[in-house]
Amino acid sequence: MAKTQRVHVKLNGQEREAEIEPRLLLAHFIRDVLGLTGTHLGCDTSNCGACTVILDGRPIKSCTFFAVQADGRELLTIEGMMRDGKLHPLQQGFHEEHGLQCGFCTPGMILSAYALLRGNPSPSEEEIRWGISGNMCRCTGYQNIVKAIQNAAAKMQQEGVAA
Amino acid sequence: MIAKTSPEIGGLGHSVKRKEDLRLIQGKGNFVDDVRLAGMVYGQAVRSPFAHARIRSVNVENALALPGVLAVITGKDLEKAGLAWMPTLFHDRQMVLAVDKVLFQSQEVAFVVAEDRYTAADAAELVEVEYEELPVLVDPHRALDPDSPILREDREEKTNHIFHWEVGDREATDRTFQQAEVRAQVNAIFQRCHPAPLETCGCVADYNTGTGRLTLWLTSQAPHAHRTLFAIVGGIPENNIRVISPDIGGGFGNKVPIYPGYVCAVVASLKLGRPVKWIETRSENLQSTGFARDYHMTAEIAAGRDGRVKALRVKTLADHGAFNAAAQPSKFPAGLFSVCTGSYDFQKAFCEVDGVYTNKAPGGIAYRCSFRVTEAAYLIERAMDVLAQELKADPAELRLKNFIPPDRFPYQSPLGWSYDSGNYAAAMNRALEMAGYQELRKEQAAKRAKGELMGIGISSFTEIVGAGPAHTFDIAGIKMFDSCEIRVHPTGKAIARFGTKSQGQGHETAFGQIVAQELGIPVADITVEEGDTDTAPYGLGTYASRSTPTAGAAGAMAARKIRDKAKKIAAFLLEASEEDLEWEPGRFSVKGVPGKSKTIQEIAFAAYTNIPPGLEAGLEAVHYYDPPNLTFPFGTYICVVDIDKGTGETKVRRFIAVDDCGNIINPMIVDGQIHGGLTEGLGIAFMQLISYDESGNVQGGNFMDYLVPTAMETPHWETDKTCTPSPHHPFGAKGVGESPNVGSPAAFVNAVVDALAHLGVKHIDMPLTPWKVWQILKQKGVVD
After folding, report:
1. If you average pLDDT over residues B30-58, what whole number do you get?
2. The domain that contains A48 carries what CATH number?
3. Residue B550 in contact with residue B466, Cβ under 8 Å?
């Protein structure tokens, strides 16, 4: 075992801490050490976006980010998306518009969409496509993902809530 | 037409929202890499950097000395256990771990097991392998040259030739060509590409030394077949193997074969008595697992000057890589490629295919494809456009003139298939109407006059799916039936288990709808389960668009058996004779006696609480469905492109897809399948390429080099349907998952070639990268 380092993060609102190797990737830290497996790995080269998580409000690809870089910072993963025991409008939108098939890209896709809607609550189709262009989906052809995000944006506008 | 049930029942034709979504949108799916067991350790393959090399030595000392390393397995170790080689799914064998030499870059040479992933990766670096490089064979056209190296020294026949396969009437076809007024020819390469599902392949092998049972969580599209093969090859009694195929992150044919990593993980678990996890990286996935296509094809059409096609002649060279690891029915070395006469009424046809070995990853698998039908559809649809160019005919009109007419079904194709049903002109006309075809042609003429490049591409494909009838189809000897078992519980809820395995197709919802349609039990009350070989009935799995034609049919048939028994129970409860009962979804009533009826839920309760004398208790059934024929979905796709002269970049402006897959279970899911398949077709047409340099180094080995479409390149798909039910399927369905991927590559390529046709361009091989198109524009003097 190489030299270890203590890392402390706030993950989905909960304080979590662990002693880890400095080379441990954030995606493995979240999955293997903290035990939340909703964050997936699809490529190792930060192309596919399946590992997207929100770090201090911004989306990052956790497969090419060291866990120690997240020390003292705040993380949001798919497991933290529910609000008051209810699905987030984005989660609802993906279900209602058939925005997922195998579901492997879905957590990362939802988190990228979350980051997009935080900065731009009513994006155009073009802006949505740009917003998720760092996330690959091999099943849906993106069309229903776009609709899912539009569905969520409309719902949030209607209800006056932010992402 | 099939009677539509109420939305509450949610039978066929309802866009029922998917049940599987709820766990997946919360990050609560259970993919293979999510499986965590006490004492679990990690495996990592050591891979060859060379495409062809003799192994002089493998030194594992340093790797074993690393703290945390538990074992290093080499080819020599496996050889002692008789496991250095394993059979492929197609009459060949493949090295699990190389013993004497390696045959492709990234081939597995050793397998390291350690307490955690990082240590396993470290240890893999410490395994020292001494190689002696050998001459490399990359070009399949050179495979049979006398000066090319013989790759498979293990085989008795010292040649790189794997098989010759031919079908059709060669002489009659040749004679027709001799007399033909018009001939058209296209030489087309369907490039090597990779399905690249977003989840790579992997497994967790857990051999329990107490019980002697092996539990294998596996990224498997065919868990039962894999269990049997592990039993036969590994010598473990089949009752002691449980394969669990959990949530699968896309398959597209990539997860049909058995890979060396799975076998090594099993061997390691047997050796260590601990659960062993092995998960590929993306590079390992792209460089070593089942590729697709790599068909080097020539098609010639003989036709009359009136544009009527007469004969088709096809010659193909198939590059299978280092081992023939094709995943296809055992009597068909080129799969169902002989459906290459497509939607057209050819009187004569001849098709021949030769397979060869090269120093590349083994395959090829059916990538979102029913066994080489994608290659076939691409070839004929390209050839028809070349013929249209020859004749200066409109490609839509030429197709309409040559379609097999609706009154000729069931249609006997000259290469031996019996097409079940079709109405090709209906789909074509709908697509032309949606596209506004005549207006598009006018616009194109106007643009051309201004020097702008716009193209319209048409593809009117016919698929052949749903393998298949047991008299003809088997994989590794196992007949290609599929199955369903339904149990109706006392409270009227049910569980239905199938021999297939969804990888995103939505079986948990759609297959529940089949049962709901037949029994009238609301789809919400039906649990669908697949993928656990301890509980599901035996089946051949999900690929080749076979799930609905086979397992879906089995679901309907099993449900009908249950309905037959329910009728007997209803007759007893209603004190009526069975002949006096009539069925509506969810209820038996006495004819002519309003209000005298029993619901399926009441009947289910009685099956356990008030059993009629002489009947067995319970309400369950199992059905193994052997389809009488394949099904033949079809459609017409129209693609409109604009090409940027300055960059050679193609923009897909519009894409119209009219599909006919017979009766539809869930329209929402069918549309989703079509969107996804079209997008993979787009990727194949414009970007997806696994190529090799002359030393056999793979050039598309990660997602930086192997490009797949993002949301930015993907256009908005315009979809519609026609409906020509399959006459032999229990509810008239045909299957759809692959149609868009089979039919679309030709539409994209035809559109790009059409945009350049006035420059004398007749064919461009995929992928149609901006660089390739720009070079043509430069060569033709369109740009400086």
Report:
1. 98
2. 3.10.20.30
3. yes
The number of domains in chain A is: 2
Task: Summarize the confidence of residues B646-667 as an average pLDDT.
Answer: 98
Together in a domain, A37 and A59: yes
**A149: chain B residues, CB-CB within 8 Å:** none
The answer to whether the Cβ–Cβ distance between B27 and A37 falls below 8 Å is yes
- B18 to chain A: which residues are within 8 Å by CB? 95, 98
pLDDT tens-digit profile of A66-94? 999 999 999 999 999 998 999 999 999 99
Query: What number does CATH give the domain B32-134+200-248+255-288?
Result: 3.90.1170.50
A59 in the same domain as A13 = yes
Last residue within a domain, chosen from A33, A55, A80: A80
Residues of each domain in chain B carrying CATH 3.30.365.10: 21-28+482-625, 291-405+415-467+629-779
The confidence score (pLDDT) of residue B169 equals: 98
CA-to-CA distance for A99 and B729, rounded, in angstroms? 30
Candidates 2.30.110.10, 3.30.365.10, 2.10.10.20, 1.10.10.10; CATH matching B291-405+415-467+629-779: 3.30.365.10
H, E, C per residue of B189-235? EECCECCCCCCCCEEEEEEECCCCEEEEEECCCCHHHHHHHHHHHHC
Range of the domain at A64: 5-80
Of all residues in chain B, what percent carry a pLDDT higher than 90?
Answer: 98
> What is the spatial distance between Cα B634 and Cα B100, in angstroms, rounded to a whole number?
48
ipTM: 0.98
Bridge partners of residue B182, in order along the sequence = B303
Domain boundary pick from A53, A80, A107: A80
What span, in angstroms and rounded, lies between the C-alpha atoms of B45 and B49? 12
B678 touches chain A (CB under 8 A): yes
Q: φ and ψ at B101, to 5 degrees?
A: -150, 160
Q: What's the topology of domain B21-28+482-625?
A: Aldehyde Oxidoreductase; domain 4 (3.30.365)
Is there a contact between B199 and A42 if contact means CB atoms under 8 Å apart? yes
Which chain B residue has its CA at the smallest distance from A49's CA? Answer: B198
Q: Are residues A75 and A123 in the same domain?
A: no
Alpha-carbon span B740 to B717, nearest angstrom? 11
Do A93 and A59 belong together in one domain? no
Sorted by sequence, the CB contacts under 8 Å of residue B128 that are 6+ apart come out as B57, B58, B59, B62
Q: Both A69 and A114 in a single domain?
A: no
**How many A×B Cβ pairs under 8 Å?**
176
What angle, 0 to 180 degrees and rounded to 10, lies between the N-to-C axes of helices B667-686 and A143-159? Answer: 120
Q: Tell me the pLDDT tens digit for each residue of B131-153.
A: 999 999 999 999 999 999 999 99
Helix or strand run (H / E) with residue A26: helix A26-28
What confidence tier does A162 reach under pLDDT thresholds 50, 70, 90? confident
Mean of the pLDDT values across residues B335-339? Answer: 97
Please write the tens of the pLDDT for every residue from B206-241.
999 999 999 999 999 999 999 999 999 999 999 999
Longest dimension (CA), chain A: 53
User: What is the per-residue pLDDT for B245?
Assistant: 98
Flag if B29 and A38 touch (Cβ within 8 Å). Answer: yes
Q: Is A158 exposed, middle or buried (0-12, 13-18, 19+ CB in 10 A)?
A: exposed
The answer to whether residue B125 neighbours chain A at the CB level (below 8 Å) is no
Q: Write out chain B residues lying below 8 Å of A79, CB-based.
A: 26-27
To test the contact with chain B by mutation, choose from A62, A143, A147 the residue with the greatest count of B C-beta atoms within 10 A, namely: A143
Question: Do A97 and A47 fall within a single domain?
Answer: no
Q: Is A137 in the same domain as A112?
A: yes
State yes or no: pLDDT of B179 exceeds 60: yes
CATH code at position A121: 1.10.150.120
pLDDT at A135: 98
Closest partner CB to B672 (pick from A24, A39, A144): A144
Q: Please give the positions of B annotated as active site.
A: 221, 368-369, 738
